[in-house]
Write a structure and sequence with these properties.
Blueprint: H1 2-19, E1 29-40, E2 43-50, E3 60-66, H2 69-80, E4 83-85, E5 91-94, H3 96-101, H4 104-113, E6 118-122, H5 126-130, E7 133-134, E8 137-138, H6 141-145, H7 152-160, E9 166-174, E10 177-187, E11 190-196
Parallel strand pairs: 1-4, 1-5, 5-6, 6-9
Antiparallel strand pairs: 1-2, 2-3, 7-8, 9-10, 10-11
Length: about 200
């Protein structure tokens, strides 16, 4: 029951970011392009990449934490005073510890709001991938996303098809460059292993 309530709460937080509040001005919102989710000893650490605006030349990086995914996402609004808008989210990166703990619960909020969002796994932490810098500038989300072909619906169908296993591309950071380094294999939404790239 507690797990179901937690899933519903996260759905509400992401749903609020996707569909409401309608009366806010653009400068009161943050357009989230990518989300990184890491599991920690005390809950979740979430890394958010926001689109650049006319006032900011480059994309912005935000980090928030909480005992649950819902609390981590809510803490962003409390810390910045701005509402996240998740309708532009095109990429979700999971940290290795999150994948080892299981992805079923953290994927639930995305089924309604962003079923075609691209999914990937970091060889270390999601924060490392989303905070990678090239020449002191954050690696563009578009470039990172271009390395990923698996979307939520594909992963879900592979995980739920009898005799099939889901897989996600693995991303690693080498000297500030994000690159594909392998393919992660899942069973029942838990990481089984990583096949290194040839």
């Amino acid at each position: 029951m507690k797990r179901l309530l937690s899933i519903v709460a996260v759905c509400l937080v992401l749903g609020w970011g996707l569909f409401g509040p309608r009366g806010l001005e653009l400068h009161q919102r943050v357009l989230i392009q990518a989300i990184g989710i890491d599991k920690t000893a005390t809950g979740y650490q979430v890394t958010l990449r926001a689109a650049s605006t006319s006032q900011q030349a480059e994309e912005r990086l935000y980090t928030c934490a909480g005992a649950t995914l819902e609390q981590a996402l809510e803490s962003f609004s409390h810390a910045t005073g701005r509402e996240p808008l998740y309708s532009h989210t095109g990429l979700v990166v999971f940290g290795k510890t999150c994948a080892q703990a299981g992805l079923e619960e953290v994927l639930a909020p995305f089924y309604q709001g962003r079923p075609t969002v691209k999914l990937s796994l970091s060889s270390d932490s999601a924060k490392e991938v989303l905070s990678a810098k090239q020449d002191s500038i954050l690696a563009p989300v578009e470039e990172i996303s271009a390395l990923v072909e698996t979307d939520l619906l594909t992963f879900y169908n592979d995980e739920n098809r009898p005799g099939s296993q889901g897989s996600l591309p693995v991303l690693s950071v080498y000297k500030g460059q994000v690159a594909r380094s392998g393919q992660a294999v899942f069973q029942d939404y838990r990481l089984l292993g990583i096949e290194k790239a040839g």
